[in-house]
Amino acid sequence: MGISQAQTTQAHTTPEIKIAPLVAVLISGAFAAILNQTLLATALPHIMADLSITANTAQWLTTIFMLVNGVMIPITAFLIGRFTTRSLFLTAMALFATGTLICAVAPNFSLLMVGRIVQASGAGIIMPLMQTVFFVIFPVEKRGSAMGLFGLVIAFAPAIGPTLSGWLVDQYPWRVLFYIVLPIAIIDFIVAYFILKNVTERTFPKLDILSIILSTFGFGGLLYGFSTAGTHGWGSAEVIIPILIGVASLFIFIMRQLKLEQPILEFRVFKYGIFTLSTALGMMVFIAMIGGATILPIYMQNMHHFTAFESGLMLLPGALIMGIMSPISGKIFDKVGAKWLAITGLTIVTISTFFFTNLSSDTSFTFMAIVNAIRMFGVALVMMPTTTAGINQLPSRLIPHGTAMNNTMRQVSGSIGTALLVTVMTNNVRDPQTYGMEGIIHGVNVSFIVAGVVSGIGIILAFFLRKTSPAEE
Question: Which residues form the Major facilitator superfamily (MFS) profile domain (predicted)?
C-alpha cells in the first residue's frame, strides 16, 4: 500500500526526473481543487435562493465534497500502488474537470450534488498523490522546505477564493464560478499529459471491496445523521438510525483492517501516542476553522445584509495570514517542536472564537475581519507542526499510512464539524417574531460557543505533546 524505503531511494537517485515542472503541475492541480472548494463559501446564500433550498441542504455542497475526499484518500494509497503516477493524475484531473462541467450546467440541486461528487472523486486523488510524490522526489532534509512551499502556494487559493466568489456572484450567476475553474483544470490536464513522468513504483496491492463499502457506510452514516439533525431533531429515527449504522460499519471496518495483510487504512498507526494526539488536535482545529468559514458568510449575508463580495473580503486577511504563517510555523517547529506552538495557537483560536459568540445585527465588518484573521493565525501555528510531530514518530514503513490516516481524519472531521455547527445554528434560533433578527443570530452565537469549547479542549491535550524520534520497527 505504501512506498518502501527502496522505492524512495530509487526515486532520489533517478537523474531524469525534472522536479520543477513536476511540482508545478501537481501544485496547479491542487490549486484548482482547493480554489473550487473555497469558491462556494460565499456563494451558498445565492445558491440557496436560486434553487430554493435551506442552509442545512446547501451545506451538503461543501460537506459532500469533503466527505468524498475523506473516502478517496485511503483508496488513493491503493491506487498509487496499482497505477502509474501519470495515469492516476490524468484520471484525477479528468474526473475533476468533468464534475466541474456538470456543476456549471446543473439545472437543479440533485445534479449539482452529482457534479460535486465527481469533482471530489478527482480532487481526493490529487492531494494525497501530490503529497506522496513530494515525499518520493525530495530527500528528508528538503521535505520541510518543500511542504512549506506547498503550504504557501496552496494557501493562495483559499485566500482569493471567497473574495473572488463574492464579487462574481454579486455581478453574475453563481454558475460562473465553475466556468472559471474549468479552464484551469483542462490546461493542467494538457500540460500534465506532455510533461508528467512516473515517479512511484507499482506494487499491485489487492483491493478489498468490502472495506470500501464499510468505510463509505461508516463515514456516510455518521455525516448524514449529523446533517439531518437540524431538520428532524436529534431524537428522530432519521438521525439515530444513520448514526448507529455509521458507528457499526466503522467498527466492523476497523476490525477488518486489523486482520488484513494489506489494509485500506492502517489503524495500527494509532499505537503511537503522539501521532494519535496530533491527529486529534488537527481534527479539533479543523472543525473550528471549517465551521467558521461556512457559518460566517451565512450570517453576514442572510442576517447582516452584507454582500457576498463583502463576506469574502472579510475572510481574505485571515486566509492570507494563514498562507504566510504556514512555512514560518514549519521552520519554528524545526527549532522548538510542536508543543508550545500548539498551546499558543489553540489558545489564540479559542479566545478569538469566543469573540464571535456575541455577534449582533450591529457587529462591524472591521471587527469580524480582525477577529477572523487572529483565529487563522492561531490555526496556522497548530496545523502543520502537529501533523509533522505525529508523522515523525512513525517508523518509515508506516509514514504513507500515517499521512493517509491524518488526511482522512481531518477531512471527515471537517465534514462532520460543518454539519454539526450548522445544525447547532439552526436548532438554536429563537422566535423571530419575538426576538427579531437577534433571535436568528443567537443560533450563530451558540454554534461558535461549541467551536470554542472544542478548541479549548485542544489546549489541554496540547500539553501532552512532546518531541519524538521515529519509532523502532
Answer: 22-470
